[in-house]
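Re: [ENG-882] Designed sequences occasionally contain unexpected residues at chain ends

Forwarding the minimal case from QA. Structure tokens:
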């Protein structure tokens, strides 16, 4: 409500400390009355400083590089790099880790290139993965917004920003100029998404591609698509580069080394670098990451080419040491548990070597502590379900809002179904990924059957 001239003129400078506190408390009560409880609080209060909740990346080395043990919840993440560098692989590992902890994940496949067989090999439960294959950029971002507003989704992956084609460009002719259209679309979407992502504790991951600037004589000529808005709104930006081939030569290759740099980090020190092994058809090598991290923190000794654990030699050369850990999972789990307790003491331990369905069967869903926060999202989604269900688009009737508010506490899936309906095209959101799987099976050679493909 606009202030009157007399109210504006009544503003005075208070010098007494007690009077300042009383005036501030009155202002806080007025703000909470107008905007809701928690609109203004001290940063050190229990509500505000509850710690950064995370979902692990699937690699203990990358978790350490991120500084907090994984990707921060309630934040926007950008993963960018050249083609076939492993961007989608990193994102799918986050999906698998969220599902291990009882979370729900969605994949907005703007490129229409998601391979369900490859995702399954990375540990993703495709029967529980929600997939959207939008026709235009506006539709993709609208679906994303509705999923975030539902409060039920823990991880959303948008693959990729470059494929978010504005509707005007789709309707236009080849060769038409659409200067800055995609950048304006991304800027508007991110302005709307930032606040609701923070409240819903959802991790929104944008996969992005690299383009070359024209006429750059000095400096880095590379840039990412979609304008500069995503660079500003992202809390973490990860650059992925393909390194050397694993194997004797390209004909006998079984993986790639990938160089990762955290170029921006709002929750920990940035510019940390790490090198991972991505195996064809398997994704990030958890045993390779574990071995390198254990050597770094002196849990495994490396003298020359030999690796030793508790004074016992476990292998000559990196590959043989990794095979030893693969053949001795008890030792691998013991090492991982020790490292995570040392690096991330507030996180509940869930092994990277456990499949998604096994982790769910062990009763991890809903029992995750504040260190990871996935289980808490379920409770938050249920307690705030009425508000999430009632925040529908203009044009919905009062009866629709009341029906949504009554049915929302039933669970995450019911809220996701409402989000699918609100997005305008229910067929774009598929819980079982059956349509994606069938499409791949119907195209000869498109399915991942040779274990030699890297996203």
């Amino acid at each position: 409500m606009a202030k009157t001239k007399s109210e504006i003129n009544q503003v005075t400078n208070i010098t007494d400390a007690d009077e300042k506190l009383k005036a501030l408390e009155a202002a806080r009560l007025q703000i909470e009355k107008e905007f809701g409880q928690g609109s203004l609080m001290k940063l050190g209060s229990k509500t505000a400083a509850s710690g950064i909740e995370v979902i692990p990346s699937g690699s203990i080395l990358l978790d350490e590089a991120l500084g907090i043990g994984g990707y921060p919840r309630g934040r926007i993440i950008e993963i960018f790099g050249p083609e076939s560098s492993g961007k989608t692989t990193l994102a799918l590992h986050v999906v698998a880790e969220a599902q291990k902890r009882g979370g729900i994940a969605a994949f907005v496949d703007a490129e229409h290139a998601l391979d369900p067989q490859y995702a399954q090999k990375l540990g993703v439960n495709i029967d529980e993965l929600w997939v959207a294959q939008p026709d235009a950029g506006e539709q993709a971002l609208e679906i994303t917004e509705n999923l975030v507003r539902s409060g039920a989704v823990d991880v959303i992956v948008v693959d990729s920003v470059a494929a978010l084609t504005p509707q005007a460009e789709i309707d236009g002719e080849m060769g038409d100029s659409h200067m800055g259209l995609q950048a304006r679309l991304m800027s508007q979407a991110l302005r709307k998404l930032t606040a609701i992502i923070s409240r819903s504790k959802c991790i929104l991951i944008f996969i992005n591609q690299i383009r070359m600037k024209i006429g750059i004589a000095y400096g880095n000529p590379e840039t990412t698509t979609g304008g500069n808005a995503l660079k500003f709104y992202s809390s973490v930006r990860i650059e992925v580069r393909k390194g050397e081939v694993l194997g004797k030569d390209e004909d006998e290759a079984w993986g790639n080394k990938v160089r990762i740099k955290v170029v921006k980090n709002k929750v920990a020190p940035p510019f940390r670098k790490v090198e991972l092994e991505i195996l064809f058809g398997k994704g990030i090598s958890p045993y390779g990451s574990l071995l390198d991290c254990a050597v770094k923190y002196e849990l495994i000794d490396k003298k020359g080419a030999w690796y030793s654990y508790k004074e016992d030699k476990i292998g000559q050369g990196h590959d043989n040491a990794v095979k030893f850990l693969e053949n001795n999972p008890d030792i691998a789990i013991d090492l991982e548990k020790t490292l995570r307790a040392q690096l991330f003491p507030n996180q509940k331990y869930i092994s990277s070597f456990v499949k998604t369905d096994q982790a769910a069967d062990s009763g991890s869903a809903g029992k995750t502590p504040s260190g990871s926060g996935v289980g808490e999202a379920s409770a938050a989604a249920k307690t705030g379900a009425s508000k999430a269900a009632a925040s529908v688009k203009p044009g919905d009737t009062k009866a629709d809002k009341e029906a949504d508010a009554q049915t929302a506490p039933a669970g995450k899936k019911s809220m996701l179904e409402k989000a699918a309906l609100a997005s305008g095209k229910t067929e774009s959101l598929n819980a079982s990924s059956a349509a994606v799987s069938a499409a791949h099976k119907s195209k000869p050679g498109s399915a991942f059957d040779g274990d030699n493909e890297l996203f």
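QA comment: On inspection the terminal residues look reasonable. The domain at 285-355 is CATH 3.30.250.10 (Rec A Protein; domain 2). Proposing we downgrade this to a documentation issue.
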